[in-house]
Amino acid sequence: MITTFDDERIGFRYKGLPADAADLTLGEFAGQQRPILSGGFSWPAMTLRLSAVEHNADLMARYVKSHNLQIAPHLKTSMSPALAAIAEAAGIWGVTVANPFQARVFMAAGAESIFLANEVLEPAFVRDISAWQAREGRRFICYVDSPRGVQILDQYATEGLDVVIEIGHSGGRAGVRTLEDAANVAKAVKQSKHLHLRGVGGYEGSVSHGRTPEDVAAVRRYLGTMAEALRIVAADCAAGLPVIASAGGSLYFDCVADVLGPENFDHTDVLTIIRSGAYLTHDSDFYARRSPLDSGRNESVGQLLPSIEVWAQILSRPEPGLIIAGAGRRDVNSDSGLPLPRNVIPFDDGAARRDVSNWNVFELNDQHAFIQVPDDDPAEPGDLVTLAISHPCTLHQRWSAPLLIDDADRVVGIARSYF
Description:
By secondary structure, this protein is of the alpha/beta class. It has ten helices and 19 strands. The strands form two sheets. Strands 1, 2, 11, 12, 13, 14, 15, 16, 17, 18 and 19 form an eleven-stranded mixed beta sheet that branches. The chain is globular, with a radius of gyration of 23 Å. The relative contact order is 0.16.
């Protein structure tokens, strides 16, 4: 069972939280359900709309069930046990992480199953994860892509470890580059003492980043290579267990369902696990324009909802058409697009929200956002502006204690992150 860490003391260490929360645990503070506009919060503050996160978790759970898949959400996005617990409540196979540190966070949080989508070469961690599996009765899977990697894992594992062969592509990241290499790694695993081959894994998001026909065709060709590799190594996989095929970031999990779904493999019991991570909190630009569950691509299934906003105070109107808000590169990300203004909330009347999607953030300093606005816009210093974002991964890492808010803008939880 995923749990949160309520024994942490909060205060000025956590951006956005009110100063009078310094003597409370995160759980005690969240239980107060304070209105964000009158609860003494500091600006800027990152919020997650709880109803949107729960909607997204439920929508993805229904999607994978309808396609005979499983999901292990990639928690590198938020590193938040609280958000993992929401996904778990909707239904997941386990959680995905990218390195031993991240795995240790979710081991401590009580995760039942961990998929480490990377090679593991740290002797201390290999010993610890072996003991964790044996002691706790949990599941752990990681990548291998070389006989040397197999040798290191086998040398330091004290109990059996499940592995999948990472299938790479030319110009990509790790992973075998040929089917012959995949067969050689499978042979090395079969000859090892402690390792059990479970299938293949990979990441199609490094093949392309768009949804043009050419982009999708390239992704499907790569997934087809993964399917061919799985058929080659299936005979070397652990007997009596499903053979695993795992891929599927947040852009192409529909392609994974089509190409690596269990129905594509005759006479082989295949468990297809997608590892999307951004879907839980989603965004308003990069993924909103590309996700298989957004932009009108699956009206019958539903659409993901953006949950993230950064609330910033308007600090100055120094020139006509220019607003300076108190949120900069340390508070909002810009790697996949600048923040998007959504609403302004007057200083003297928090109930009177006004849509400002015609505003434009055109520059960020460390602590300031430069926003172009109509000359006659009535916004004043002291007002709040809410900023939507693009690409949640690089936004989450800027905040250690995002605020979970309900639809009445009350803080009802803390999605503590452990980066």
